[in-house]
Amino acid sequence: AAAGGLTLVVGGALTLAISLALDTGRYAELSRAVAPSWTGAVGLALLGALLLPNAIVYAITVGVGPGFALGRGTSVGAWNVDIDTVPALPLLAALPDGGTPPYATLAVPVLAGIVIGLVLVRRLDSEDERGVLSAAGWAALAAVGVALLLGVAAYLAGGPLGSGRLATVGPSGWLAAAYAAVELGVVAAVAAAAARFRRRPA
Question: CA dihedral in degrees (31, 34, 40, 46; nearest 10)?
Fold first, then answer.
């Protein structure tokens, strides 16, 4: 389960980094506008570092499916992106312009599910009598555990910023957990079953 969770975090971080790299001009423009002096730039960098864990969680929820909201009129999910007025934060240069996010983000939970299944099977001793269905069941259970942790992280990463336009910010914890449980569970179970079938004692 830990390996699957780590895969989600690394995948979310890579997704965020690639999104920022694809729009470095916008990032630089926002940075200059918000913090024209070096002291402001230092403060902005510290703020970005504080928000980075939240941004990674947001990126993961996009790959899982439900995504997140960023105030009234702005939502980013796996199948649809609606962008309205957002705060002038350089980190938000990672937001897609509209339409749909990069489809590579959808590969993150799939890869995490495969990792969960394969790692679980590798930990089973070759003499273990548990069969294909048992391995699949344990892998699915481990995946659900990862999904619950993602749900908690998503809940903690969101919350209103005042009562106005940014009253709704962040992903839904229960939606992120539910989507992840299904996706990770199915993929992990299939991966574990396939790997266990190949490793069965002759």
Answer: -60
Task: Please give the tally of structural domains in the chain.
Answer: 1
The Cα–Cα gap between 152 and 175 comes to 11
Exposure class string for 37-55: b at 16+ Cβ within 10 A, else e = eeeeeeebeeeeeeeeebb
d(CA 82, CA 75): 5
Give the C-alpha separation, 9 to 35, whole Å: 29
**Of 41-45, 70-74, 153-157, which one has max mean pLDDT?**
153-157
Residue type, 75: S
Domain containing 118: what range? 2-199
128 three-state secondary structure: coil
- Pair of tokens at residue 16: 């965020």
160-178 pLDDT, tens per residue?
A: 776 667 778 889 999 999 9
Q: What is the pLDDT of residues 17-46, one digit of tens each?
A: 888 888 777 777 777 777 777 777 788 788
Can you name the residues that pair with 70 across neighbouring β-strands?
Answer: 169
What residues does 170 pair with on adjacent strands?
69
Is 189 exposed, middle or buried, given 0-12, 13-18 or 19+ CB atoms closer than 10 A? buried
In this structure, the strands spanning 81-82 and 75-76 are antiparallel
> pLDDT per residue over 91-111, tens digit each?
888 888 766 677 778 899 999
Q: Please report the pLDDT score of residue 97 as a whole number.
A: 73
